[in-house]
Design brief:
Layout: E1 5-10, E2 14-20, H1 23-29, E3 36-38, H2 41-50, E4 54-59, H3 61-71, E5 76-79, H4 86-97, E6 100-102, E7 114-120, E8 126-131, H5 145-149, E9 151-157, H6 164-180, E10 183-187, H7 191-206, E11 211-215, H8 216-223, H9 228-233, E12 242-246, E13 252-256, E14 259-263, H10 277-290, H11 295-309, H12 322-329
Helix pairs in contact: 3-10, 7-8, 10-11, 11-12
């Protein structure tokens, strides 16, 4: 019998390649400091070959969230497309070693494994060059019915929604989740994603999303509002839907169970790198939901996880998060 999983995520499977460099390197390669730029395979190969010593680790928004769930002591699975190459092996080994079940077979045809080349300068700025590679071919065939059937919650990464095959994969995962009695969660991922797909996201949510994650910019874009309170007023809980909207140091607003609750953020003594804050908030919130805890407790655990990840470099937790789960969820 397949092991029950608290959360299964679908997303862009990306290997983060992180190296320290200097401004001269950025200038030599014409890189816009502090920006994220999409590049083709040839450009990615050129930059990769010229990088200094680097750390390579599995990445991507939903993958970060699943690693967070596992770090909290939960059970997590992941589906994403990698190629049968060296970076594909890196992704598989790294995410499995973090305790996340990743069974998606490697592709033998098409683009290489996606990579995000991260150049860190002495002032701690991160300049990113991303090649989406194999991610662009993620489709219904990559969705594992057995793993979806074992999930309490299925988590969909909004970044993946750009392509028709990925949309079909989302809908297949949602059908399987409903058939198996699992909840469906969606993260809006980025305000630019919402700008491009606003009408489709609204329809997708109405069609059967139970939990929606957004930040302030994303929720304003979704409802085409300029006032935050007006946007929150549009987030109803009909059909048992839950909305978790993060506001950085202001905490989060959770709409659900007939209530609008404001949950404060945890205090952080030393803010180092905000990368992954939303991903780890989602990890804590989702585990709380999988354990059927009150929404305020779910959000409180999310904030504790976010506080840990922004206190150091990188989008993955460094501390043992299980004591946080025990203290916040009881």
């Amino acid at each position: 019998m397949t092991q029950r999983l608290d959360v299964v995520g679908l997303g862009n499977a990306i290997v983060d390649v992180i190296a320290r460099t200097n401004d001269a390197f950025l200038a030599r390669h014409g890189l816009a400091k502090g920006a994220m730029t999409l590049v083709d395979a040839a450009r990615a190969d050129q930059l990769y070959a010229d990088m200094g010593p680097a750390i390579e680790a599995s990445g991507g928004s939903a993958a970060n969230t699943m690693v967070g769930v596992a770090a909290l002591g939960g059970s997590a699975g992941y589906m994403g497309r990698v190629f049968a190459d060296q970076l594909g092996q890196v992704f598989r080994h790294d995410i499995n070693a973090a305790g996340v079940r990743f069974d998606t077979p490697a592709a033998r045809e098409g683009e290489p494994t996606a990579r995000c080349l991260v150049f860190v300068t002495p002032d701690a700025q991160r300049t990113m060059q991303t090649h989406l590679g194999a991610c662009v071919d993620f489709g219904p065939g990559d969705v594992d019915p057995v793993q979806i059937g074992a999930a309490r919650i299925v988590y969909l990464e909004g970044y993946l929604w750009d392509r028709p095959m990925a949309k079909e994969a989302f809908r297949k995962a949602m059908r399987l989740a409903r058939a198996g009695g699992a909840k469906v969660a969606l993260t809006l991922s980025d305000a630019f994603c919402v700008d491009r797909h606003r009408a489709e996201f609204r329809a997708l949510i109405a069609d059967g999303v139970d939990i929606v994650f957004a930040n302030e910019a994303e929720i304003l874009s979704l409802w085409e509002e300029k006032d935050f309170d007006a946007a929150i007023a549009r987030c109803d809980a009909r059909g048992g839907r839950t909305w978790a909207v993060t506001r950085s140091e202001k905490g989060s607003v959770v709409v659900g169970s007939g209530l609008v609750q404001h949950v404060p953020a945890d205090k952080v003594e030393r803010l180092v790198d905000t990368t992954g804050a939303g991903d780890l908030y989602a990890a804590g919130f989702l585990l709380g939901m999988a354990r059927e805890r009150p929404l305020a407790a779910c959000a409180a655990l999310g904030h504790a996880c976010a506080a840990e990840v922004i206190s150091h470099y990188g989008a993955r937790p460094e501390a043992d998060l299980r004591p946080l789960a025990a203290s916040r969820l009881g």
